């Protein structure tokens, strides 16, 4: 009886297939593996690109993944209507999925480049587009397993539990491979756009090959022709898009940054775009965010550096600032003996060393023997310096300059945490000061005063102040889109120490150009920042980040 029972469960129905039931099942499971890998790459592409374009990676990942999982359930229900023609249905689903998933990154990027008002609208067009792609891709992915289940039963009738176990095993292993391939293979070698297009092509080929090669005899001649035409069309569209992706990226950059893009590279850390020539026309963008504007960067860097230099300043630590502009201001003080600069991205340092426009702007700071750049994550470097494993020759620092990305950017929140400021405080010499760029007190008061609360929680006393610029073409902060009504940026800073530092300027004394910032503007900036104070805000920690996005 047990043998008869096993025979009933494993009864073969492989008539009409070009291979036996064993190889046929392996082909189906291999296709499940490939399609699962492609499906996860689509998810990760949407998460990565949405985070890059809109910021706040936690929110984007939550929206994409939750919407997609919900849509997969909807797709599984809708697939019940296709079970009677499972092979044809699967072939059509995979072709559509390949096209939608392959072009999703292109479409989202195009809307960012040519419809920036969508991205300035908060929960407007950009997120609707992202949610739309997540829904459609999720529905198509969800339809795969029910259709594949029918196709498996077409090969050999078996109990549902065994078939589901086989399908999900192949599916989960494929998802593992896709999840690892995206960050370690596709993204660094091909980039987000080409990687998505290649994934779509692999998806279309795998789905079409399985249906036409293994189940082609189950299809009518008309269905076979339809499926061949559909897959050829999808592959042609994806191939054409891949061939033109370089021109597309150039056109998108011109739309976003203007026609004078001089450098556009993707480092291991971020996208780096440099536009303009020398002086006021130069602009440096990191991951789409305006980081340096030659028109008014002096206002920012003078406000960040010179109040902190009022006091002993023989040894200075700069966290971030790979463009060399904060270092330029520090090195104007003859009393500076050593400057250690910790920058995460060596490509930024290399550009600041070699680009004629940027080296002119930073006054060839990297040619000064007092400046010692280090490639490292600022948090990790401070932790190693505290434990004695990092390079910190000569004792503590008189001044620490935190020239870091905006705290509202998710990847930067650890650099504005209580733990980070505690580590920074430990490398201070007695009487040392820390200067921190803290966001705009006028536009983002909660962010600014949360940084203040976090510094105080780390045992430091703070002096808030602000400075104003002139270039309002791009928002300064986590936003990337042009403001609807540009205005001059409002930079907020916090000067901190174990004793509350006085707010005054230290004249450089190098015989160079006079500072644009004066004592009257500094006092006015302190009053302007104080007027926005929000009391009783909790500090931000690694386990509980509190910066709004």
Automatic annotation (TrEMBL):
Binding-site positions, spermidine: 301, 323
Keywords: Cell membrane, Membrane, Polyamine biosynthesis, Spermidine biosynthesis, Transferase, Transmembrane, Transmembrane helix
Main location (coarse class): membrane
Biological or metabolic pathway of the protein: Amine and polyamine biosynthesis; spermidine biosynthesis; spermidine from putrescine: step 1/1
Binding positions (S-methyl-5'-thioadenosine): 270, 343, 377-378
Domain of life: Bacteria
Positions of the PABS domain: 236-498
Active-site annotation: 403
GO MF annotation: an example: spermidine synthase activity
Membrane topology: Multi-pass membrane protein
Enzyme class: transferase
Record field: catalytic activity: S-adenosyl 3-(methylsulfanyl)propylamine + putrescine = S-methyl-5'-thioadenosine + spermidine + H(+)
One Pfam family cited in the UniProt record for this chain: Spermine_synth
Family: Belongs to the spermidine/spermine synthase family.
NCBIfam families per record: MFS_SpdSyn, PRK03612.1
Family matches, as HAMAP family: Spermidine_synth (MF_00198)
Stated name of the protein: Polyamine aminopropyltransferase
